[in-house]
Amino acid sequence: MGRVILEHAILPVVPGREAEFESAFAEARAIIAGMPGFVDLTLSRSIETPNEYLLLVHWERLEDHDPGFRGSPEYARWRELLHGFYEPFPVVEHFREVA
Amino acid sequence: MGRVILEHAILPVVPGREAEFESAFAEARAIIAGMPGFVDLTLSRSIETPNEYLLLVHWERLEDHDPGFRGSPEYARWRELLHGFYEPFPVVEHFREVA
Questions:
Q1: Is the pTM of this model over 0.90?
Q2: Average pLDDT over residues A14-25
Q3: Are B47 and A93 within 8 A, CB to CB?
Q4: Hey, are the CB atoms on A96 and B43 less than 8 Å from each other?
Q5: Are A54 and B6 in contact (CB < 8 Å)?
Q6: How many beta carbons lie within 10 A of that of residue B50, not counting itself?
Q7: Residue pLDDT, tens place only, B30-76
Q8: pLDDT of residue A1
Q9: What ipTM is given for this predicted complex?
Q10: Among A66, B12, B77, B88, which is most exposed with the fewest C-beta within 10 angstroms?
Q11: At how many degrees (to 10) do helices B18-33 and B73-82 cross?
Q12: What residues of chain A lie within 8 A of the CB of B5, using their CB?
């Protein structure tokens, strides 16, 4: 696990659309989970700011996320399901676990 | 695991002090790991912004982190070891995993 890549994004969902987002995310999860290099994913909801979600995805290699997933036909469907819920659009960063 | 609390902080370390911070963190890790309600911890380093670290700590309950850990004598030592590395001071948030 020490070498895997952690994709990190805080997802600001338009207030009032949280339940709809969670339902769309349940469908989108299956898309990303089938991609090469996908390891695991968690979606968590902020306690202090309930319209904010934390997306954490482990990938085997940075390239599995980008250009792998982001350049795939599956990403078009992911985007279609989810991107309309975000305001503003999230910043995605990648991290590597410190030994 | 679905009910545990995830403490989340992006830690901006003064550039050039990353190795010293990682060494101090290795000592600080033992302090937090001994606290009641502590589940696990990961520290990861940003690929895009190498002086930024992502701290993720799972707690059994929100109260185990605050006031539990934050109100403890052990927190004084944690603060002494780590807080001098941060600029600006990090924002800490709590999340709960979406089922």
A1: yes
A2: 98
A3: yes
A4: no
A5: yes
A6: 12
A7: 999 999 999 999 999 999 999 999 999 999 999 999 999 999 999 99
A8: 47
A9: 0.93
A10: B88
A11: 170
A12: 47
